Amino acid sequence: MLLIAETIATGLGSGRWPIAPATAGSAAALLLYWALPFNGEGDSPWFFLMIAATALAGVWAANYVSTPKDPDPKRVVVDEWVGVWITVAFLPATWGWLLAGFFLFRLLDIAKPFGIRRLEKLHGGVGVMLDDIGAGIVGAIILNAIHLIFF
Fold this sequence. Notes:
Blueprint lengths: L1 H8 L11 H15 L9 H21 L12 H10 L7 H17 L4 H4 L4 H27 L1
């Protein structure tokens, strides 16, 4: 069971990258998203099912691998996977939008504005996942507003 939890929590191992594991995890998630057949748009029901399933699995996996001394281990990047996928939801799956989503999500994940920081204080895997989900929602609102206004 530990191997399954570790594989999910580390984003298929992308969280084991020695430098900036959260950034590596976000990049890996976007590469996977780009490679999957979602017809070039981030509005496929399968895409949203993937986000929901990964979020639920992420809560379980983060709970399983975290400890009281380290409640949010750096190698746990499944939260970045879900957050960056939410950020690019409803946008064209082009490299321009994916890169914009990547950089905006990382900025929001680091800065944690608009009360996002409070979400990470929630207990266990829920807190690990929710701050990145919050950053993803804010990122999606910003990028989709830009897309609707200018494109």
